[in-house]
Amino acid sequence: MSRLLDQLDQGKGSGSPPPPQGGKSRSAWVAVIIGILLFMVTKGKFVILFVLTKAKFLFGALKAGPLMTTVMTMGVSIMVYAQYYGLALAASVVVLILVHELGHGAAAKWMGLSVSAPVFIPFFGALIAMKEQPRSSWVESIVGAGGPLAGMIGAAICLALGSLLGDSFWGGLLLVTGWITALINLFNMIPVFGLDGDRISKPFLWGHWAAATIVAFVAMGLEYHYYDRLQPFMIFICLMGTIKTWKLWRGKPKESRLLDRLSKVDHHVDEDDVKIGHRRSAMVIYVGLLLGLLSLMTIGDALRPAMPQ
Predict the structure, then answer these.
(1) CA 7 – CA 256 distance, rounded (Å)
(2) Quick check: 93 and 81 in contact, CB under 8 A?
(3) I need a surface site. Which of 33, 194, 200, 205 has the fewest CB within 10 A?
(4) What are the sequence ranges of the domains in the chain?
(5) Total-model pTM
(6) Best CA proximity match to 102, nearest among 85, 120, 89
(7) Mean pLDDT of 218-242
(8) Which DSSP helix (H) or strand (E) runs through 225?
(9) Are 100 and 184 in contact (CB under 8 A)?
């Protein structure tokens, strides 16, 4: 997801000092407090006002400084999601989405890339902006893997704590949050349209896709055999893996020319430095995340009777 704003800060000069943010930060805090109060007093009807003015509100958040950008857009997302899922579940899921994005940010910094603060967009999750492009598909793969890895750890912690707390409000909330988090991250493993799975698999050759797809088919078959259920996202992953294996084996490019022109982020200046060991490691990372997230969803389904109805 962090690819969507990769070009956000391109072309900005680095020599001039940033304008003072004190007044904007105070105004942003006041806006957040007023918004929360209005939300509580009107029992959520304030969201209607947000829908009418969301563009101006979000652009104002982008000018309020990195920390306030994250805080304000998180608050907006919580208010919107609370209309459908309740305040407690909305807040917990948004926090786990933040964990996912921070995972991307940590991986990017580990690989020497500068990133922006996370920005939340209701119904589209969240994203970060990389201020410079990955120099190889291996670097992009690591950055892409950081989010699902952090999300998988967060989901595992939620499921474990929820199981320990048992049949209680907090236990049920944590179980639901863990399951939803695993679901969101499994969705992001679909290797298409710049999702995390697409980024992680950038270094793959056709043989790596073939091996990963076989593992995905086996995992999906075992889940169906033992638990009589199929995760829809696994079907898409197996389908896309089969298509990519066939195209790469035939020597065709990974992506369509149209998508390449739209994204303009697939050029890696140091691609010659990517070794076969990097490509194999990317495959192991992808398969490990896929199996881990699928396992967490299966565990969450098994604990479902303890979840609030």
Answers:
(1) 21
(2) yes
(3) 33
(4) 1-10+24-133, 135-258+272-309
(5) 0.76
(6) 120
(7) 93
(8) helix 206-227
(9) yes
